[in-house]
Amino acid sequence: MPAPIPWSGLEGPCATAWWWPEATEQMQRHTNHFLVTILGGDIEPIERRVVLTRAVREGVRGTDAVGVYWGEGTLVHEPDHFARMAKSVSVDDIPGPLWIDVRVEPNADGSHRCFTTGLAPLGFMEIEVRKSGLQPSELFEFVGDSACYIVNRRMQIPDGDTMGRTATEKYKVRHGESMFDRPTVMQLVME
């Protein structure tokens, strides 16, 4: 496309891309973009994204691309980083950080909330935590690892079940209304 992606669609993803501090500066430089998609066919959602990830990897390698925007997860990536992470992508080992955005934000009371974007296109409920006392990095890791676990094992966690990293850590799972305007989500009760 002989035009940049509208900045209104990139500003938020660039501002929250803590893994790429130069995202805003780099992505504001782009003057053209190309779209990569798979139309039609009966490829299941995860396999479809594996193929798409491989195509994008090949598309940015050896070019002067300034960034990769993964729209389904509202994520931006530095091209070389994307290519390195995409190298080992498979249907049984998804590149969670490339496809699924995990955001941690502070609540007014000093706790944190967390939510994902990018699970729904893969056929799973997005994860939300309204309130947690975990440190932000620990909450980010727990939710990100949980998202990858769910996708790699192709499992939906039933309403009322629990999740945790150990036999004694158990957070209640509730299927319910999102904090945002989106379909039912998997809420982790971490209060």
Give keywords.
two-stranded antiparallel ribbon; alpha+beta; 6-stranded mixed sheet; 191 residues
Explain what the structure shows.
This protein is α+β, with helices and mostly antiparallel strands and 191 residues long. It has two domains: 7-96, no CATH class; 100-189. The protein has six helices and eight strands. It has helices spanning 7-15, 23-27, 45-60, 79-86, 96-99, 136-152; strands at 68-70, 75-77, 101-106, 112-117, 127-132, 162-163, 171-176, 185-189. The protein has a six-stranded mixed sheet. A hairpin with a 5-residue loop joins strand 3 and strand 4 (112-117). Helix 3 packs across helix 4. The termini are far apart.
Radius of gyration: 17 Å
**What is the succession of H and E elements?**
HHHEEHHEEEHEEE
Mean pLDDT: 95
Number of extended strands = 8
Task: Tell me the fraction of residues in β-strands, as a range.
Answer: 15-25%
Strand order of the largest sheet: 3-4-5-8-7-6
Morphology call: globular
In whole angstroms, the N-to-C terminal distance is: 47 Å
Largest sheet: 6 strands, mixed
Structural class: alpha+beta
Count of spatially separate domains: 2
Task: Supply the number of helical segments.
Answer: 6
Q: In which range does the helix fraction lie?
A: 25-40%
Uncertain parts? none
